[in-house]
Write a structure and sequence with these properties.
Structural class: mainly alpha
Number of helices: 30
Strand content: under 5%
Number of strands: 0
Distance between the termini: 81 Å
Number of domains: 3
Helix content: 55-70%
Largest sheet: none
Radius of gyration: 28 Å
Oligomer: single chain
Order of helices and strands: HHHHHHHHHHHHHHHHHHHHHHHHHHHHHH
Length: 623
């Protein structure tokens, strides 16, 4: 066998090995469900997605902001998943795993192509594929945007490498096109042009450091001055700048960005230093990986902040100093630091101090340093080759096992938040999320305990107070629930959700005028919420206003693309109350079919009984 054939067989073995290992690591994901942490916002209760791929939905994906972001390709991927799998989570999960595997293989091809080394590249790709920090991006369906942005990030790199080796206008247009697609997946990819500039430094070695009269400096026509290479990135940087500004505006309008009054600048800088060090720690020793890390609210004078700032500055200085000889160290460190900048908290989006998903691409910088430093060490000390191989294999196997364990924590909302509470302290957000998951399982006593814990940690936590009132509603403690809602309104917490819950509280007590009043207030703030229209229709029906009830039920059906059994059932009840029994029966039969298709057997049984009433010319009255 020739050396060329041997290397080809080794390459095939490595590629297949990464695929198999990743499938083994993520095998438990086929048992996982949706989680009550944005999966409803992105998929289950998102009419744009559940409406499937249509001309209107494609236009909406490109023209409408959702969850305070513009990422049309991400929406299209969710729409396609829904078209293929409906609300069966297994299909959604397997698509994310498949994209992640493609990303790992593409990464291996890119690194081998530009560094010329197989084993160091294979180590980076394997750790990228199997590190438990990546589980959040892969196992969280709503985080599809991260693995999808990773795919187009790496494709942009591949297109750029092709251009860099033989520059040409058509090849540059391909880079622009693929980067444009990348921008449509997730806003944080705005740092990619700077990473391409780092690649010019190493390993592409496109930067000409000598003067024009230096013949040696002009010996490579592909090398250019740093100014020229920077100018070359201006179109990419312009696209990034526009998207960055639009994203900030969108997130500010959506209330996602915290003001300086809420999170002061010194807290943000302190958190940035602490988070950089913690991210390195999580990469090296991936333990206690939570879905949400509570903010520490430390300032610049805190001991922890000072220590982390010192570590960060020292590592930066060493990386730049050594990087004059070992360019990959400077490139790797600046990759890690730079790509994390949009997510490090200087512009605070959300309440988290840091997030595992933010390391999906930044970790590559550190992995490149580790792999290339190991390669250089083995080149100097060949006797360490066996030790390095055993150590690397043991590390990869350990990561595979840890990833399997981490995937299981994402099985459902209860397992996810329960684990997060076990590895964090004073985590009010997760206490609230865990309580909500318990509430959805009718474990009301346990849920109440955790809502109270959330309020103990953060006394002004209005969301937990709202959910606590929901427990009171379910337990028939209506006055206590109404008291909470009225207190929140006095505190100027006037949200669509609060008005909705207050309307439900009055509706249960058959105080229909008050209920209708607050449903209207909720719809003023959120006019396109199908559930609010549905419940408004039910209350109007109970209040003896069938024609108005039909209008709201129809709107609920429109907003859900006529694919929600409960909304169709409410519309059928409205038709029957108005004496339109033929329409009531036809609509109820559609609702029955949908209920059976989606496994809602209890609802299907209720609808069957109502159809019998409609056939007998009798309306349905809520008992």
């Amino acid at each position: 066998m020739t050396l060329e054939h041997q290397q080809k067989h080794i390459s095939i073995f490595v590629y297949v090995g990464i695929v198999v290992a990743t499938l083994v690591a993520y095998e438990p994901i086929r048992h996982n469900y949706f989680v009550s942490y944005d999966d409803d916002l992105y998929i289950m209760k998102n009419p744009t997605v559940t409406g499937g791929i249509t001309g209107d939905s494609i236009i909406l994906a490109f023209t409408k902001l959702h969850a305070a972001n513009w990422h049309p390709l991400t929406w299209l991927s969710h729409m396609l998943d829904y078209r293929l799998f409906g609300l069966n989570p297994t299909g959604h999960h397997l698509v994310s795993v498949a994209i992640h595997i493609v990303n790992a293989l593409l990464l291996l091809w890119i690194l081998k192509n530009i560094t010329g080394t197989m084993w160091a590249s294979a180590f980076v790709a394997a750790v990228f594929a199997l590190h438990p920090l990546q589980v959040e991006s892969v196992a969280w369906i709503a985080e599809r945007k991260t693995v999808l942005s990773g795919l187009f990030w790496l494709l942009t790199m591949a297109a750029y490498i092709r251009y860099a080796r033989r520059p040409g206008f058509s090849r540059y247009l391909v880079v622009l096109l693929v980067f444009g697609l990348c921008i449509m997946t997730k806003p944080i990819v705005i740092t990619l042009p700077l990473v391409l500039l780092l690649l010019d430094y190493w390993p592409l070695d496109r930067i000409r450091w000598g003067h024009l009269h230096d013949k040696k400096a002009r010996s490579r026509p592909d090398q250019k001055s740093i100014g020229w290479l920077t100018a070359e990135k201006i179109p990419l940087l312009t696209i990034s700048a526009i998207l960055g500004v639009l994203t900030v505006i969108a997130q500010q309008s959506g209330g996602a960005i915290s003001t300086l009054d809420k999170v002061p600048l010194d807290y943000r800088i302190a958190n940035a230093f602490i988070s950089y060090v913690k991210y390195i720690g999580k990469l090296v020793w991936p333990s206690d990986l939570a879905v949400f890390y509570p903010p520490s609210h430390l300032n610049l004078l805190n001991t922890t902040t000072v220590i982390c700032a010192f570590i960060f500055i020292v590592i930066s200085a060493i990386s730049i100093y050594i990087g004059r000889r070992k360019k990959y160290i400077t490139v790797g460190w600046l990759w890690f630091v730079g790509v994390l900048v949009p997510m490090i908290g200087l512009v605070q989006v959300g309440d988290q101090a840091m997030a595992n998903r933010y390391m999906y691409l930044p970790m590559l910088g550190l992995l490149i340093i580790i792999a290339m430093a190991g390669k250089d060490l083995i080149a100097k000390l060949p006797q360490l080759k066996t030790v390095a191989a055993i150590t690397g294999a043991a590390a990869i196997l350990s990561l595979l096992i840890l990833t399997q364990m981490q995937v299981r924590h994402w099985r459902n909302s209860i397992t996810l938040f329960e684990y997060a509470l076990s590895v964090t302290e004073d985590n009010a957000i997760t206490e609230n999320s865990y309580a909500c998951a318990l509430f959805n399982e009718d474990r009301l006593d346990e849920a109440e305990k955790h809502f109270v814990n959330a309020l103990r940690i953060t006394p002004g936590f209005d969301t937990a107070l709202i959910h606590l009132a929901r427990i009171y509603l379910k337990e028939g403690r209506y006055n206590e629930a109404v008291s909470i809602y009225e207190e929140l309104i006095k505190r100027n917490h006037k949200t669509a959700e609060l008005y909705y819950n207050l309307a439900m509280a009055f509706g249960i007590q058959e105080k229909y005028n008050d209920s209708i009043k607050y449903f209207n207030k909720s719809l003023e703030l959120n006019p396109n919420d199908p559930d609010t229209h549905k419940q408004m229709g039910i209350i109007l029906l109970a209040a003896g206003e069938p024609n108005e009830a039909i209008g709201h039920a129809k709107r609920a059906c429109e907003l859900t693309g006529n694919k929600d059994a409960e909304c169709l059932d409410a519309l059928a009840s409205g038709f029957a109350a108005a004496g339109r029994f033929a329409e009531a029966k036809a609509t109820a039969e559609k609702a029955l079919k949908l209920a059976r298709e989606t496994g809602q057997e209890d609802l299907a049984g209720e609808i069957e009984n109502r159809i019998k009433l409609y056939e007998a010319g009798q309306p349905y009255r809520e008992k």
